């Protein structure tokens, strides 16, 4: 007999039961996962363990004696998973020896020729592989952590040699900021430049010495191209109207932002997010810098729609991502 014939001969109550049964088998994995994490389930397991605690401990000790190799492997995995080194490189695996050597030496400029000319002609940006750039950020940036959600990073290059990294990402906000919707905002999340290229200078044709503003130059070049590059990588996301960034008042004064035409729009921070569960998912991470007061900077794009439409009409290449 066909399923259609059986349904036709069912009572309404039987039909509802059948529909519920079919729905359960389609969603069984998610239902069991939800039940496993429910409070009632945890409480019942806790009560059961309290009643059978001695038996459970005895069985565990017997298993440890009978399976020494598996026990040793389990302890090693647990130690590795919860070690400080593993947490430092999270969410990535610990780099091997060659990777770590590359990360430590990244950005070092061996020699800088002062007579080659203006920095604006020598400094270029290259779109960087996200994993490699985040490993550099984790190791070198003072926060020692990367970002989550959608991201795009650049290598900052002088004479085609990478000397730093600049990372844009979606801001971790869910309310409009300065009248702009969160999905139309982009955050300048990380900027790191190797100390070997800081405080350098160059000589012009008249022999006059000028200091190199690598950070401001790199930021300016990135602002002129980030909308196009972001749209190429994430064509389904809304178009960007502005770039936002937060400057930690304890560490710097936001001089780079001011020189790049960012505007101060307010203050935020000064409190910890706690260490409990998020309402949506995951846990709050109690980073120390959350307690620092931060200045909010905003850079609005002018004529964004006209620029983007012209660029998209002229774009004929394939998406490189």
- Which structural class do you get from the secondary structure elements? alpha+beta
Strand content: 15-25%
The average pLDDT is: 83
CATH topology of the largest domain: Aminopeptidase
Q: Summarize the helix and strand pattern as letters.
A: HHHHHHHHHEHEEEEEHEHEEH
Residue share in helix: 40-55%
| CATH H-level superfamily title of the largest domain | Gcn5-related N-acetyltransferase (GNAT)
Q: Would you identify the CATH architecture of the largest domain?
A: 3-Layer(aba) Sandwich
Low-confidence stretches: 304-321
Q: Estimate the global geometry from the Cα principal axes.
A: extended
Largest sheet: 7 strands, mixed
User: Can you list the strand order of the major beta sheet?
Assistant: 1-2-3-4-7-9-8
Distance between the termini: 51 Å
Number of strands: 9
What does this entry look like structurally?
- This protein has 321 residues and is an alpha+beta fold.
- Helix content is 43%, strand content 18%.
- The strands form two sheets. The chain has a seven-stranded mixed beta sheet, sandwiched between helices. A two-stranded antiparallel ribbon has the order 5-6.
- The model is unreliable at 304-321 (pLDDT under 50).
């Amino acid at each position: 007999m066909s399923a259609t014939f059986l349904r036709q001969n069912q009572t309404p109550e039987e039909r509802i039961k059948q529909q519920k049964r079919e729905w359960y088998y389609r969603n069984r994995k998610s239902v069991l996962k939800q039940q496993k994490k429910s409070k009632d389930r945890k409480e019942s397991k806790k009560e059961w363990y309290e009643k059978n605690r001695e038996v459970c401990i005895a069985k565990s000790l017997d298993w440890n004696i009978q399976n020494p190799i598996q026990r040793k492997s389990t302890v090693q995995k647990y130690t590795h998973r919860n070690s400080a080194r593993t947490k430092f490189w999270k969410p990535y695996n610990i780099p091997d020896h060659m990777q770590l050597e590359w990360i430590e030496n990244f950005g070092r400029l061996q020699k800088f020729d002062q007579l080659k000319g203006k920095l604006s002609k020598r400094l270029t940006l290259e779109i960087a592989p996200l994993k490699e750039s985040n490993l550099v950020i984790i190791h070198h940036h003072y926060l020692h952590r990367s970002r989550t959600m959608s991201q795009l990073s650049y290598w900052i290059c002088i004479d085609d040699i990478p000397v730093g990294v600049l990372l844009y990402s979606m801001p971790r906000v869910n309310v409009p900021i300065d009248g702009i919707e969160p999905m139309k905002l982009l955050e300048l999340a990380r900027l790191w430049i190797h100390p070997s290229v800081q405080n350098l200078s160059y000589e012009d044709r008249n022999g006059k010495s000028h200091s190199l503003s690598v950070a401001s130059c790199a930021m300016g070049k990135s602002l002129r191209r980030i909308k196009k590059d972001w749209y190429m990588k994430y064509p389904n996301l809304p178009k960007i109207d502005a770039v936002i960034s937060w400057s930690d008042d304890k560490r710097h004064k936001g001089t780079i932002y001011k020189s790049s035409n960012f505007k101060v729009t307010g203050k935020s921070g000064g409190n910890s997010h706690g260490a409990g569960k998020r309402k949506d998912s995951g846990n709050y991470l109690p980073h120390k810098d959350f307690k620092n007061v931060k200045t909010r900077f905003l850079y609005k794009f002018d004529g964004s729609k006209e620029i983007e439409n012209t660029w998209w009409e002229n774009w004929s290449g394939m998406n490189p991502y």
